[in-house]
Write a structure and sequence with these properties.
Distance between the termini: 18 Å
Order of helices and strands: EEHEEEHHHHEE
Shape: globular
Number of helices: 5
Radius of gyration: 15 Å
Strand order of the largest sheet: 5-4-3-2-1-6-7
Strand content: 25-35%
Amino acid sequence: MYLTVDCAQFESGKIAFYEFCNSEMTNLIHYSLEKFNLLSKIAEITYLVYYSIEKNRAVVYQSGRDSFGDKETIIDGNIQDFNKWYSYKNNVKNKDGKNPSKPFGDILSGGDPYVEKILNQLEDLDFDVLEDDNGRDIIIPALSEVSTYFFDVDLFNVENNDVIEF
């Protein structure tokens, strides 16, 4: 199976994946949970972020951190709680301010239609129906004044752990 990874980062020398789901888009909830479960099998650190800008709500789960199942709640609060946590996670390696990274790319313009077209063909997904914003609505405000150390993965093959970047 091929999928996109909304954000990834190295944490303590390990890859961490982030999947975002606007909980107001009910057609995305199952898809996002499926992605989270697949990514959790590959990476020790995987986060699932459900959010609602309209309701000022954010819930962040992390995979494999508790003995009661497959995820632990890291944040259950408002968007400001998420912004503090996410900007810290993102900028923790830039404490001296001397290592800025590149600015946001296609995330600002609404996604990559080329990648979406390929993913549609490989997995028979319809991004027009899914309306997956890859977390843009919550990521951009959270990192508005912070250099980013996150990166996306255009296509990821979960069977072979192949990364395809365009």
